[in-house]
Amino acid sequence: MLPLELPTAAVATGAGLAAGLAAGVFHPRVMLFGPGVWRGPSRRRSVALTFDDGPHPHYTARVAELLARHRARATFFCIGRELERHASLAGELHAAGHQLANHTYRHGTGADLFHAARLTEDLRRCQEVLLKVTGATPRLYRPAVGIRNPVVHRAARTLGLTVVTWTLAARDGAFPFTAARAHAMAARARPGSILVLHDGSTQARSALREHTLASLPLLLEGLRARELELVTLDELLFPSPPGRGTG
Ligand SMILES: [Zn+2]
Fold first, then answer.
1. Residue-wise over 15-53: b if at least 16 C-beta within 10 A, else e?
2. 106, 133, 154, 225: least CB-packed within 10 angstroms?
């Protein structure tokens, strides 16, 4: 079934329609099938660094160590299955002031994306693990591989989750995060930007993750040089009004 509201240009031709649908499914800034967030407010000079697919026993703690060295806090979109396996690691992230959010329980990109009840159950399972680790029910959800369709939005709505994509992607799941990419990302970031990298990997050891770790300090230094403060997504999206404490 097609969504009712398609851009006029996309309806014009079959190819245009396919392109429009692909944009809606994949493009992080196109929310064709439901509400979502790809950037935060730009009033303050804040950006949110996010890490997907962890926790990973070999890489997550090293990412956290680099963040601590740069006094930066980040948001980790965790895979529920990995959270269960590395709960103490996740607990350390939470204790260090980082935010943990839902990146599905099993990171399914097949049948899960076509059955709302099945995806809802998967997300609920991840919510339960996150609740155990952090003591709070998360409200942010990044779909696996950033894919959005009506099922993704329906499941998010059922659980009261806000769908979050990103403004800038390191694309370090497919390409080495080189020094040049780190510099470019720091240069392109704007107040309110949401940046995505990866701390997780399907492998025990990953050359791509080593690149991420090697260039992460360059990104952190580049953002600091531009006086952009690194905050969690909650702080970026739901800032407390000036002059008021968090109580
Ligand atoms: Zn992922």
1. eebeebbeebbeebebbbbbebbbbbeeebebbbbbbbb
2. 225
Catalytic residue list contains 103 = no
13 CA to centre of ligand 1 in angstroms = 32
Q: Which domains does the chain have, with CATH numbers?
A: 35-237 (3.20.20.370)
Is 52 marked active-site? yes
Selecting among 52, 122, 172, 199, the annotated active-site residue is 52
CB 169 within 8 A of CB 28: yes
Distance separating alpha carbons of residues 11 and 21, to the nearest angstrom: 10
Distance of CA 244 from the midpoint of ligand 1 (Å): 36
| C-alpha 242 – ligand 1 centre gap (Å) | 34
**Two tokens at 184?**
């470019």
Catalytic residue, candidates 86, 103, 153, 198: 198
What's the chain's length in residues? 247
124-141 tens-digit pLDDT = 999 999 999 999 999 999
Q: Is the pLDDT of residue 50 over 60?
A: yes
What is the pTM assigned to this prediction? 0.90
Ligand 1 centre distance from Cα of residue 145 (Å): 5
Other CB atoms within a 10 A radius of the CB of residue 220 amount to 21
Phi, psi at 37, each rounded to 5° = -120, 130
Residue 36 and residue 141: Cα distance in Å, rounded? 10
